[in-house]
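Lab notebook, bench 4. We co-purified these components, and the gel suggests they stay together. Before we commit to crystallization screens, I want a quick structural picture of the whole thing.
Request: model the full complex, all chains together.
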Amino acid sequence: MDVLDIARWQFGITTVYHFLMVPLTIGLGVLVAVMHTMWVRTDNPEWLRMTRFWGRIYLINFVLGVATGLVQEFQFGLAWSEYSRFVGDVFGSLLALEALLAFFLESTFLGLWIFGWGRIPKKVHLAALWAAVIGSIVSAYFIIAANSWMQHPVGVVTDDATGRPLQVDFFAVLSNNTALAAFSHAIVAALMVAGALLVGIGLWHLRKRKLEERSTEEPDQGVWRRSVRLGGWVSLAAFVLVALTGDWQGKLMYEQQPLKMSSAEALCETEAPASFSVFAWGKLGSNECDEVHSITIPYILSYLAHGDFSTAVPGVNELQEEYAAVYGETYPDDPSFGNKAGEPIDYTPVLSVTYWSFRLMIGMGAVSAGVAAYALWATRRGRVPTSRVGVYGSLLAVAAPFVANSTGWIFTEMGRQPFVVYPNPDVPVEDQVYFFTAQAVSPGVTAAEVWTSLIALTLVYGALAVVELWLIGRFVRAGVTTGDGHPTPGFTPEPPDDADDAGAPRRDRDDDVLQFAY
Amino acid sequence: MDLQTVWFAAVAVLWIGFLLLEGFDFGVAALLPVLGRRPADRHLMLRSIGPLWDGNEVWLITAAGAVFAAFPGWYASWLPALYLPFVLVLFGLIIRAVAFEWRHSHHTAQWDATWTHVITAGSLIAALGIGAALGATTLGLPIDGDGNRVGGAFSGLGWPALLGAVAVLAFSMVHGALFLALKVDGDVRLRARAFALRWAPAAALPLLAWAAIVHLRYGTAITAALWVLAAVAVVGAWTRMKLDREGAAFTAWALFLVAAAATIFGAAYPVVVPSTVDAAFDLTIADASVSDYTLTVMTWAAGVGLPVVLGYQAWTYWVFRKRLTAEPVHEEAAEVATA
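Here is the predicted assembly.
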């Protein structure tokens, strides 16, 4: 493999890994903030216990997200310096604004929330959590705006001297319709991740309590029951919104990146009306579109793409020819294209990846919604399900929305190849800004260096995942605990509101699962 | 002043802010095996930086982000030229961050000791690596006319990187000790004072040397005055330490960093990466900068955003201002309870 391939694998591995933490941080952050708000409003100890239990999982996950996010900011410069130079006028400022306007908010107020129990007034303490959660959401917006600019560059003209994009309209970059669609889709998808976690873990604990014949009067019963109900409803509502925002985003993509969408369907020839593929086989992996066969449902694709049952949807073969005619049959014979210089350009993304990631995304989202519906039904009017299949299935299905989130992004990113900055079809061809992935890699960096970082990062990430899952597993099994790891049934702490009390010995210490035990 | 100069200054301020803030948490972490004799001492030291380190680290992200945003040419030359050192810094920061969180997620002495060591190791790696990167970008990297590194993976690691690494770590350790003297009570406070008093003069030397070299190469009368101010601040900090004036000593030591770093950035201006291959290849702010439009947008955003950030960060420091004392840790608490 050359530097380009290694660097792409590195970007893929580190980004997919980082994005396992991100949706959980966003989704669970919102739900923990809701729980905390409910506690402040109702004084019901069940909400406090929920805040602390889920808050702790939120924090264990958050820190790994922060740690792996650092790699994201640096690797644009490290491995993709030509990309960084090319997009510098637009892309860097979005990352810097994310740090300035979102990361500071997130990390400063999260620190205040973690250490502020009993030190600052209750409502200020709650506001600190909301500030951190809003920080996460704002951060997601800037990152998605940056990514969407690569998918659909707006607000720029080409600089005649350098050939690079020059930003002329920052508000166009921020209000890119691609970004609005992708952001709303990603945020509701994040809520599905959090909802599935609440359902899976909550059901498991409820079943365990029932089999152990624990009293249903204990506050922990209410903790798990409320968690399942909250998670279930959030998942279902989020699924509806995921479908609506996904439909919006899909229709935009048919305008902005038709080749990506036809690849999602492995639709080789233009069809009018076009049918939706349910299952495909044949040579998807080798990108020989004509060798791909699928089971289809007529008319549906035309509807998904254009909102009616008749409009034509262009096929991969036709689009490939159109792109080759406009952007060239081969890469320019220039050293900046590395090994790819003079080679033919394949404008079709890897069909097996686009086709199956798109289906996994939708399928896993639907699985998640089904599990949520089951959980709500099974826990109606105080019932507790004891079915092994139902409860362990729900626990296993916690993974489903994670897979849906990952495959959604893999589809988005792989589907835009061979471009790293995709030409915007609304702009006349001669004014378009675009950049091939083959040009983007750092010219001075050696394959040995990128191999070193790829292998080392993968190993470290793997080790971190093992420890993280072990810790979360232990913590989840232990249930609602004290700082010492011992359950305290029936104990309700009341952190003092008086900030001056901070140095005094803490009455609530025994149930203090959020205070870091430094 | 043109916007490029404003943003060069802004980037310098962000790096200085980062060194000033993360410097003490790097320092406290590096001092864990030195000053933390008992587990309770180490817990106390970690508690002093617990609520603050993550917010401090955002200064690094913002500083690097501002380099990318305002000077993508600088970002795209500097990072790949020091590819492996930067990757090492990322490792240090990753293991340090997870160690802070994971340390207290499981309660055995072995687990605790392991992650405490990881915090120290990660902080040492990060402080040395960031110092090396700053040393190299102000003293020279082997870049060609396109801003790309020549000469292989380790060609960026010469004496400038070494000097920067030592300077940042030495500064941070004394900074961390002075922070502890100000922030905690008991044995650790006394040991931190003694450490700072003993090592401050030696710890100041590499940073002063680095500033002097950059000044002698490119400096002006202003950077000369700044260098003298840095040297005076060291003397001031040391005399305050002798008088046990902890607050004044901490302030003077911070002033030393600000003045020395201002000397370095001020003298280097307008060059952001001097080339060791040929002075004609020196990368300047004009070569590396984005358009004036983008700089204007960012100026507005930073002008509104930065004061707000400074406001709420200062407020959290105020909330956690109380001096900490060693509380019994969980195991000890359990023993007391059973006794």
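Residues 114 and 515 of chain A are 6 Å apart (CA to CA). Worth comparing against the SEC data before the next meeting. The longest strand of chain A covers residues 276-282.
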